Amino acid sequence: MKKAILLLVACIAMLNAKAQLDKTDDVKKQLQTENKDTVAFIYGGVFNLGFNEGFLHNWAAGGELGSLTANAVFSGYTISMRHRHIWTNNLDMNYGLFYAYSNRFVPRKTDDRIDFTSKYGVRLDTASDFYLTGLFNFKSQFTKAYDYNQPGWDTTSTSRFLSPAYFTLALGLEYRKGANLSLFLSPIAARLTYVDRYYTLRNPEGAFGVPFGETARFELGAYFSARYMVDITRQLSYRTRLDLYSNYLAKNTTDALGNIVKKDNPGNIDVLFDNLFAYKMGKFINLTLGATIIYDNDIPYQKTYLDGSGNEVLKDEPGMGLGWVQLKQIFTVGFTYKF
After folding, report:
1. How many helices (H) and strands (E) does the chain have?
2. SS3 of 25, please?
3. How far apart are CA 193 and CA 218, in angstroms?
4. Alpha-carbon span 66 to 59, nearest angstrom
5. pLDDT digits (tens, 9 = 90+) for 109-135
6. Which residues contact 305 (CB under 8 A, 6 or more apart)?
7. Which of 2, 28, 106, 286 is the 20 to 30 A CA-CA neighbour of 145?
8. Distance between CA atoms of 40 and 28, rounded to whole angstroms?
9. CA-CA distance, 118 to 87, in Å (whole number)?
10. Confidence of residue 29 (pLDDT cuts 50, 70, 90)
11. What would the DSSP string read from start to end of 301-323?
12. What does the alpha-carbon distance between residue 137 and residue 186 come to, in Å, rounded to a whole number?
């Protein structure tokens, strides 16, 4: 009899735990699209690791004899809610390497990104979808980068970790619907660009907007950031982001004779447009398609380079018609973990 009672109590406890779990999941689903006066912590994201390998021998059509490509993509978030207060963190990290027999399998980067955003907001009232919000954003990269078109490319890097590094601090108004939609607008946003002096001394115009011989540049302007994520189906999810920044302090750069060397004004808006599709093909197999578009007036596109003899040579590369627009596209099939 005692065993039967204990078994009955255990079954009731298990059913209650299951009900509580289902209730928690339902609450989390509501918090994805609704604003609630509650205390909760939710998180989510996707990690994808993909590889592509190839080997050729006596192949009539020709090609790279041996190659390996590895790509890793991580996009995650955490949201802490406490009644009218909300703290949101987003982290995006990408890294990719390409190995080829033709260059003795010396790795070449195909992707490199660190992008972290933290926001703290206070809801204007319990029925409002607007929050008074402070935002911090940090952008940089993991390792050194090189221009592989240049002779002796491995002797001179074009950038590295914290060079450049972008720090943005802003105060503004945010409209949000749960965890899935956020629209943030700040009329007062400070941005600091840091670069090692090694890079700014190599060019009379400096590097990444930082003047010649200096290490930092301060900007004050308006900042807009929009984020949206949605599960289109149970297998397919989509995340997008649009950042716009206008520098109030931007002005034309002139030489000693007063001639304009570089045109710049608050109308030259910096643009970041990020898109990521993730399709779940199995429990741990995923297909990822991403595209990022960046425009920054401080990072011009050079159509030519100097060869070993100092002669100016036109670059031979796809996408030259895009000019100053920066474009990155990735397509990965591999291991994935979604949480």
Report:
1. 2, 16
2. helix
3. 7
4. 12
5. 999 999 999 999 999 988 899 999 999
6. 147, 149, 150, 312, 313, 315
7. 286
8. 9
9. 7
10. low
11. PPSEEE-TTS-EEE---TTGGGT
12. 13
